[in-house]
Amino acid sequence: MKRQGFPFAAVLGMEKAKEAVTLALVNPRAGGLLVSGTKGTGKSTLLRAARELTDAPWTEIPVSVTEDRLYGSIDAEAAVTLGKRKLQPGLIDEADGGAVYVDDANLLRDDILAAILTIREAGGYRLERDGLSDWRDTNYTVLAVMTPESGTLPASALDRFGLFVSVDEETDETARAEIVGRVLDFEKDSEAFREKWAKENDALAKKIAEARTILAEVEVSDAMIRLSSVYTLKANTAGHRADIYLIEAARAEAALAGRRYVLPKDLERAAEFVLPHRMRDIPPQEQPEPTQSEAQEPQEQHQPPPPPPDNRDELFSQPDAPKPEETETEAHEGNPEDKKDDEAMANPNAQSGDRIDGADMRVKLPPVWIEPTKGRQKKSGSGKRSATRTDERQGRYVRAELPRAKTADIAFDATLRAAAPYQKWREKNGLALAIRSEDIRSKVREKRTGNIFLFAVDASGSMGARERMKTVKGVILKILLEAYQKRDRVGMIAFRKNQAEVLLPVTKSVDFAQKKLATMPTGGKTPLAKGLSKAEDVLDMIYRQDPTQDPVLIVITDGRATTPLVDGGDATKEAMNEAERIAKRKLPVAVIDTENGFVKLGLAKKLAHKMDASYFRVDKLSEDSLLRVWRKMSA
Amino acid sequence: MKRQGTFPFAAIIGQEDMKKALVLNVVNPRLGGVLIQGEKGTAKSTAVRALADLLPPRQCIAGCRFHDDPADKSNWCDECHEKYDNAEPPVEELPMKVVELPVSATEDRVVGTLDIEAAIKEGKRSFETGILADANRNILYVDEINLLDDHVVDVLLDSAAMGINTVEREGISYSHPARFSLVGTMNPEEGDIRPQLLDRFALSVYVAGEKDLDRRAEVIKRRLAYEDDPEAFIAQWQEEQKNEVRRIERAMKLLPQVTASNEILRTAAQISIALEVDGHRADIVLIKTAETLAAVDGHTEVTKDDLKTAAKLALPHRMRRRPFEEQKLDWEKVDKVIDA
Questions:
Q1: Which domains, from first to last, does chain A contain?
Q2: What Rg do the C-alpha atoms of chain A give, in angstroms?
Q3: Number of neighbours of residue A603 by Cβ within 10 angstroms
Q4: Which residue of B has its CA nearest to A421?
Q5: Are the C-beta atoms of A181 and A53 separated by less than 8 Å?
């Protein structure tokens, strides 16, 4: 279906994005374009409209794409009707000489996005499918859009985009009103609206076409090559991709200006698109300003997948702003906060003194607090997962395979392609197609679920001391907020007094978790063994529901067990036994040690050791590197 | 199996915001749907299903799988273009429908897939339509939308925003119009909805159980009467239902004449700026909602009051989220901007 979309020229604002689009269209060697921005800014509208600026091929990769369509496959229809083995070209093949558009690039499967980007770099790919074997040359530019709110891109994918632009909504009132006016006009009579903008759109298309014709003649002097290296060195980019993209983008700038040589200003403009997403951490005083024109924060430049850092600060650290949760239930008792803490420290058996702490959002997460992948590799050895996997009919169909066992989840398209070449020789009983059991292919499905984070939190009296609980709540909430963006699920167990209870069943609802967390009281003794055994129950339940899940267990405690499972038992020993049982599960586990003060018993560390867990001390949670953690996890 | 008569829309007590939001989406199919949030047993699903009885007939190209609008050529499917670009299309009148997307639906059922029958019988590769094809120019209803599988949400996002379903799977390459009003219901306690999907809803309303004793009793009484004898109950409400349909039809006729002044457009922009909402959807939806409200109310010039009512429906779910804070709307701010 041909899109009679909103005209490119009629999109108000987003000037930088428009410039980047034209650069990408003029010179595919500039490495394509990624536009990132919050929802509803018109990113998709703009990039889709770019289709009308060129006569070149244009293919669109929907998130539900299957591999046969992406790479190409045997044309089953031709095989059946003509008995010929013919190629039905894939989308990246059809795009040769033009553009591939990816809406919501961060929702596309990582491997598909990676394939699109690497094949673009290589200028072709080897097709080995359905008995076809062929090298396919294809050259295209990649135009993609992402909404960072719903997940980031792997750093490797980010680096393969030549150009990057971050867009925001218009903040000027008049402009906003004009945008609404235009959108409504378009919706009321799209033909008339398109007619009205046709002239301007055509002029732009012509400009791009002209630039394309002279692009090959645009020369880059040695001085300009040196200058581009100065830019990339200053930005401390990895490898040499940036240099190439920068020069090619500058050539496109020159071609658009009708010039046949590159000037420093071309490089300067191009740098705005080429450098922001590949700048790397360097000491702040050396942070260069590649361009003076745009007031981009250096921070913003090296972490293009927002939420923007300033926003982040707002979210996480408001040391002065009073928060409702900071009111503690017993604050009315007056001052003796410190004394009470000491009491709790001295006498963790105190039954009274339940309290509710707010969350201290100033806490920082440690650089690498857990690596789910590590655990995963371990676990795959257990062989438990693959057995159940084929039963699952949920999830996205990604490719077909020869069924390993009897299957009900038949990949009909693949089966058809497998059977097609043999139709000439088969008995068909009046049908067009005879399928034999050896043709049957089953679907390989992939379910993109996030991780499950299960917290087992020590809520005993000693945790109330010295505002530890506040810190802990802060840590949990921060993890929750990240989990939210990655669509992970979170559950929480709290143990105190004589029991361990599931405070929060595994849920996606961060709101719900926040509410539960806000009202979680502390006080009483520490039934650590009970807490750990409860965690095992929940892990079992998770496993029963979905055997493919690898939950991450995070135990937050000072390790001081004071309530035994049975009267007269050794609470510490019991806890260590439970810990050993958990270790056998080979799950990723982290222990966050909340012990502080002069005399340290180091019990939590011992516990971590028994559980084969990563170990962190809450008072060391000071390095702010949420982003690094995030990247580590998604890498 | 034909479902026996549904509980009449007009007989639903209270829940005025929800009813209004639903009616607005019928009057203006281009509005963009509504998300209904609330606890269990608050007539959310009943209301959406009851809406089916109020849906007016509209012109469709006869035989078209996507019930294309004969008058809206720019949104025709390829088949209609091929057949009727140079000929007058045959027209039939079909009522708008509520098309349900079950939470358990698989992706291939939603976007469409390879037609197996045609493949076996004729060796042909052709496209079998999915739910999104049915949903074109209709209401797409997802009960418990927050429980929808992530990858199904992914495919919904694009068509909900762009009105086109693009299929590149299982040997099929096909795209077709898929403009629908997305209506979702959910109980927020059972999980969040992804912000990107949330943003696709034009309007959102919260419903709660009736608190007034008399009205609560009346709710129960009507429900019991309906269950006792659905036919008699429906007959009893027929006149009221007809009036509702007439009101909708009148508003639909008036809608094309409704205009919003520049001042109103600016006010909408001011509201969005003051509330720091993401993107431009808020402004656009505000105006569209206000226009539709004007049509329902029977006037052709959008007023500030229309805008105020529109804000109540179009903004609550667009507030930026902050940890530890409820997504709350500062009404005073809105009123101040509008009355300034």
A1: 8-185 (3.40.50.300), 222-305 (1.10.8), 314-378+449-634 (3.40.50.410), 393-446 (no CATH)
A2: 29
A3: 19
A4: B123
A5: no
The nearest alpha carbon in chain B to A108 belongs to B154
Q: What's the rounded Cα separation, in Å, for the pair B144 and B183?
A: 10
- Chain B 146-165, CB below 8 Å of chain A: which residues? 146, 149-151, 154-155, 157-158, 161-162, 164
Model pTM score: 0.75
CA A586 from chain centre, in angstroms, equals: 25
* Structure token digits, residue A602: 């180091």
Characterize A38-48 residue by residue with b for buried, 16 or more Cβ atoms within 10 angstroms of its Cβ, and e for exposed.
bbbbbbbbbbb
Q: Is residue B133 part of a domain?
A: yes
Q: Out of B207, B228, B248, pick the residue that ends a domain.
A: B207
- Mutate which: A64, A65, A327, vs B, most B CBs within 10 A: A64
B 310-339 residues inside an 8 A Cβ radius of A: 322-324
Same domain, B52 and B156: yes
- Contacts for A387-393 with beta carbons within 8 Å, 24 or more apart? A388/A547, A388/A548, A389/A548, A390/A442, A392/A445, A392/A447, A392/A548, A393/A445, A393/B106
Query: Cβ-count burial of A321 within 10 angstroms (0-12 exposed, 13-18 middle, 19+ buried)?
Result: exposed
Across A296-300, A402-406, A429-433, B242-246, least confident range = A296-300
Our count of domains for chain B comes to 2
- Could you give the CA distance from residue A228 to residue A241 in angstroms, rounded to a whole number? 12
Q: Residues B136-186: pLDDT tens digits?
A: 999 999 999 988 887 888 889 888 888 999 999 888 899 999 999 999 999
CATH code for position B310: 1.10.8.80
Find the CATH number of the domain harbouring B146: 3.40.50.300
Q: Decide if A1 and B176 are in contact by the 8 Å CB cutoff.
A: yes
Its domain, for residue B29, covers 9-56+96-207
Domain boundary among B207, B240, B266: B207
Amino acid A628: pLDDT: 34
SS (H, E, C) A495-526: EECCEEEEEEEEECCHHHHHHHHHCCEECCCC
ipTM of the complex: 0.89
The answer to whether residue B249 sits within a structural domain is no
CB A299 within 8 A of CB A257: no
